[in-house]
C-alpha cells in the first residue's frame, strides 16, 4: 500500500491527448545538444516538412546547420518527388552535402532541382536519371562543388557540356563514375582530380544484340588528367568489355605515374591478363611511389616479384583476394618480417589458401595452418578493424593458444570479420573418439523428465545442441571482440547459386569435414554481439534445429542485414521453426537473403517475416522451392516499406507472372486511394 507521501498517479489513466502532451513536455526538457542528436536520426524530409512544424523550439532546432548541411536521401523510399522539391525549396541554400544515390524513382525534372542548392560541395547522384544536357545545366550552377558521383549511360555526350559546366568540373577533386557504356565520361574535364572511383557495369552487348567495343572511345574528348591523383579505384563487373575499357583508363597512368599516388586498387572478377602497359605502370609505381593501399588482380601478383619491390608508407588497406600468396611471402614482403604495422586497418586474404602456411605450395586442404605465421600477423597488425580469411581451409592444430580463434581474439579493434566455417571448429575429430550423437536423438538418463523419442518438445534457445560454452574457442573469440558489427561465417567450399561478380557453379563441392563440428551452439554464441548489424551464415551442414538463430534474434537487436544459405541437410529445411521465432524479434532488419534448396515460402514464414516492420528488401533463392501466392500478397500488404522482393523458386512461369500482376494491381489501387484521400 502506498504511503500518503507517494505519487500514486498512473499515466495509463491519462487521456491520450494529455499523455501525448506529457511525453512532448518530457522530450523538450532535454538540452539542445541531446535533441539535436536525436533529430539527426530523423530522415531529412520528415525533419523539415513535418517535425519542424510541431512547435517553435523544434522549428528552430530542425533548421540547425548541423542538420541541414548534410542531407541523406539514399534509400529513403518515402521521399516522393513533391517532398524532394519542397525540401530543396525550404533548405536548398543551406545544403552543402547531398546524397541521392539510388533514388531511381525520381524523375530527371526533380533531380534538376539540385541546381538550386548553390552551396553544394559534395553531391552523389549515382543511380539517378540524368542526361548530358541536364547534368550540364545543373553543374553550371554549382560553382563550389568539389565532390561528384554520377552514372554515364548510353547516349551520354560530353560535347553537350557547357563551358560553365566544364569550369565546375575543373574544380572537382573527387569523382565517382559508374559506366554503363564505353566512355571517359566527365573524367577529361576534371583537371584537378585527386580521387577517382570507377565502376564498370558495361554489358558486352546492346539490347539490340550488337557487340560493344572499347574502340568506341577512340576519338572522344581529351584523355584523363591524372597529374594530381592520389587515389585510383576501379571495380569491374564480369565481361571482356569492362576489361577493355579499363585498359584505356590505365594507359594514361602508364605514361606518367602521379607522384602523389597513395592508393591503387583494382577489383576484377576472374582473370585479367597483364598487358605491356599495365606492366610498365606497376614497374613505375614500384620505382616512384610509396603506397598506403593496394589491391591488384590475382593474375598480376601470382608468380611475380612485384610485392618484393613495392614500397609502402603507412599502409591502411591491403587486398590479396584469391592470390597464391604463401605465409612466408606475407610475412617477409607485406609485413616486412614482422615489422609493426599499426596503421593497417583492413586486410583481405579471401581465397588465399596458402597465406597461413609455410612456403610450400603443396599444402592440402586438411593440413593445419602455421600458428606462428598468424601470431606474427596479429602482433604486427594489432589495430586491424576489418579482416577477411574466407574461402580457404584454415585448420588449427591442437595445443594451448595455437587455435586461430584464440589468436584472433587479440584483435580487440575488429569491426568486421569473415571466416571459413571449418576455422572455428574446436579441434579435429580424434580417431580414438566416436563422433558425438546429435542431442535431439539422445534420451536423458537418471530421474530427469522423460522425452519421447521422435517428438519435438517445446523449443528453447539452445535446443538441439548444448548452448554456447565458455570453453569454446569461437565463444571466447566473440567475447573478446564485443564491438563487431559485421560477421561472415562461410563454408570453405560454398558457392552461391546466384553470385554477383562470379560465374555460377552448378556442381558445388561438399562442405569441409571439420565444418561438421560447427552447429547450433556455435551459432548461438553469436548472440553475444550486441552491436552486430550484418550477419552471413553459409554452408553449415551440422545445423540440426537452427535454435541458435533464436538467440541471435533475441540479443542482436541492432541487426539490419541477414543472409542465410545452405544450413543443415541440403534435402530438407530443418530451421524453419527457429527462423520464424527469430524474425519476430528482428525489428530493425532491413535486408533478408535466403538461399536454401526446397525452401517452402508458406504462410507461416511470411507471417513471421511481416513482423519485421523495417524490412525493405527480400531475396529468396531456392532450387525446387515453393511459394504461396496468397501469403506473398498478404505479406506485401502488411509490410509497406518493402521495395525489393526477389523470389527465385521452382514455381512455374505462369504462377510467377500471375503473382507479379496481382502485386502491380494492388499497388495501383493503393496509389489511387492515396491520391483520392488527398483531394
UniProtKB/TrEMBL annotation:
Keyword presence, Lipoprotein: no
Domain of life: Eukaryota
GO BP of this protein: SCF-dependent proteasomal ubiquitin-dependent protein catabolic process
Signal peptide (UniProt feature, chain positions): none
Record domain F-box/LRR-repeat protein 18 LRR: where: 84-669
Gene3D superfamilies registered for this protein in UniProt: Ribonuclease Inhibitor (3.80.10.10)
Keyword rRNA-binding: no
Keywords assigned by UniProt, alphabetized: Ubl conjugation pathway
Cellular component GO terms held in the UniProt record: SCF ubiquitin ligase complex
F-box domain boundaries: 32-73
Stated name of the protein: F-box/LRR-repeat protein 18 isoform X3
Gene it is expressed from: FBXL18
